[in-house]
Amino acid sequence: MKSLVGLSLLASAVFLLAPPLPEAPTGFDSKSNGLVDDPTHAADQARFEETEAISDGLGPLYNAQSCRECHQNPTSGGSSQVNELRAGHRGADGKFQDPEISIARGTEIIKGRSLVNDRAICPNGAFPSAEIQERVPDTEKIRTFRVSLNLLGDGFVEAVADQTFVDLAKEQCKKNHNKICGQVLYVPVVEAPGQTAVGRFGWKDQQASLLSFSADAYLNEMGVTSRLQPDEVTNLCNTASEPNDRPGPDGLSDIDHFARFMRASQAPARDAQVAQTSKARLGAELFDKVGCDICHVQTLTTAPVGTKINGGTFTIPPALGDKQFHPYGDFLLHDVGTGDGIVQSMTEHYGKNIYKFTWRNLALPEFHNTANKIRTAPLWGVRLHLRLMHDGASLTLLDAILRHGGEAAHVTEKFEKLKPAEKEALMEFLRSL
Question: What's the pTM?
Answer without folding.
Answer: 0.95
